[in-house]
Amino acid sequence: MTDGIPLVSFRGITRHYGEGGGLVRALDGVDLTIERGEFIAIMGPSGSGKSTAMNIIGCLDRPTSGSFRFSGVEVTALSRDERAKLRRNYLGFVFQGFNLLNRTTAIENVELPLIYRGTPKRERQEKAVRALQLVGLAGREHHTPGELSGGQQQRVAIARAIVTDPLLLLADEPTGNLDTARSREIMELITRLNQEKGITVVMVTHEQDMAAYAHRVIRFVDGRIASDEARKAA
Ligand code: ADP
To answer: Which residue, by CA, sits nearest to atom 13 of ligand 1?
Structure first.
């Protein structure tokens, strides 16, 4: 991973579904550069291509055409296994619905990505404890999701996403299931991870109040970037 190279580069990215009269241009020629350390909010109406773009950045889906480089590596040329490795090593994901394993304790949920990486048990536990401390959940290691509030569950999910020290955190409406106070707390946590740990953040949100935490707001309309504006952090 070389300095001076953008973390994410889209050049002429398209993603089409279907064909003929039923062709949907989910992404219709997107150019986008994301530098290390940025905190970006992605907004736009439903069906505008936000999830499609996130899935491509997250190496979960491939574009129909165009170039997608992650830290200089042309991801479109990688095999499925190579993309999975890139995901495991460099990306963290946070979703609206938390996506935790229900009958599994907080620490076990956070250890999961380290198990996939083959990290030895002791190191795994140490890292998971530290990640839970970082998100403000020290002492809750052995609680299951059912014993935690929504805000706390999202903190566990964030700890799980960052326990591998990812370069990029992809968050899909991370506060969509939370009340206003809890949403602010989660946004303050994500801001701290961006500022103090230097994790680049790309977050989809429908809420202006949440987008206000980002430094840059990109709006999608009809599979294209309609606006891309730097803004002051809240
Ligand atoms: P957003 O996340 O902004 O709501 P999406 O990226 O999910 O938008 O969708 C963009 C467009 O692509 C929409 O018209 C949607 O219906 C279409 N689309 C998304 N996924 C599929 C799919 N798997 N098959 C067919 N069309 C899809």
So the answer is: 47
